[in-house]
Amino acid sequence: MRRYIISISFILAVICFSGYYFFTDYWEHRFDELVARQARVFNIDEALIWSVIYEETYFRRTANGQDGEIGLMQVTPLVAREWAKETGLSEFERQANENVKELLQNPERNIQIGCWYFEKLRSQFRGRPAETAMTLAAYNAGASRVDEWTQGTNTASLAESQFIERIGFESTRAYVSSILKRYRSKPAIRK
Questions:
Q1: In percent, how much of the chain has pLDDT > 70?
Q2: Cα-Cα-Cα-Cα dihedral sign, residues 56, 61, 63, 68
Q3: Residue 191 domain-assigned?
Q4: What is the C-alpha to C-alpha distance for residues 157 and 52, in angstroms, rounded to an integer?
Q5: Fewest C-beta in 10 Å: which of 84, 127, 155, 160?
Q6: What three-state secondary structure class fits 43?
Q7: Distance between CA 54 and CA 46 in Å, rounded?
Q8: How high is the pLDDT of residue 47?
């Protein structure tokens, strides 16, 4: 009888572990195609966008942030309206004005807007050694904060590690460091 209980326990453990592994794999990679497509449109490394989404919401499309951010990439309604206006498409402007939450809970639209905004921020720091870290910090805390943290410094020669040390918010420093570590340590997108 004891052998029977041990065998059943072992089988259940294997089933639970397998279920957890496959569910986690599915959960983390279910938006890979959308991420890859939108990242390519904006010429951003798809693994970087995947890492941002992992950090922001762990792939929860209906996640809401404490400052009004919505969806996978935690896009604010203000950014969504700015994007909609810039597209020049009246349907997007209508959606952004009438039901921005629904617009931003759509995974494709959220990732599209998030990538657009990420690239818009990145253009301010392009070519600098700390470009990626600065963009991530701006995405998290705002571009004006990055300017504040680099004031009086030649950003053209500021190394990434030096910039990270200058980040004035511990939460933003942890955010940037975590994303960079994940982004650089393993392939994120499955092809």
A1: 87
A2: positive
A3: no
A4: 25
A5: 127
A6: coil
A7: 12
A8: 96
- The CATH number for 174's domain is 1.10.530.10
Provide the number of structural domains found in the chain. 1
Task: Examine residue 77 and state whether it is found in any structural domain, yes or no.
Answer: yes
d(CA 48, CA 182): 9
pTM of the model: 0.88
Q: What is the pLDDT of residues 40-79, one digit of tens each?
A: 999 999 999 999 999 999 999 999 999 999 999 999 999 9
Residue 26 lies in a domain: no
Q: State which residues form the domain around 38.
A: 31-185
pLDDT band for 5, please (50, 70, 90 cuts).
Answer: confident
If you search the block for the tokens 């599209």, which residue do you land on? 112
Distance CA 1, CA 173 (A): 56
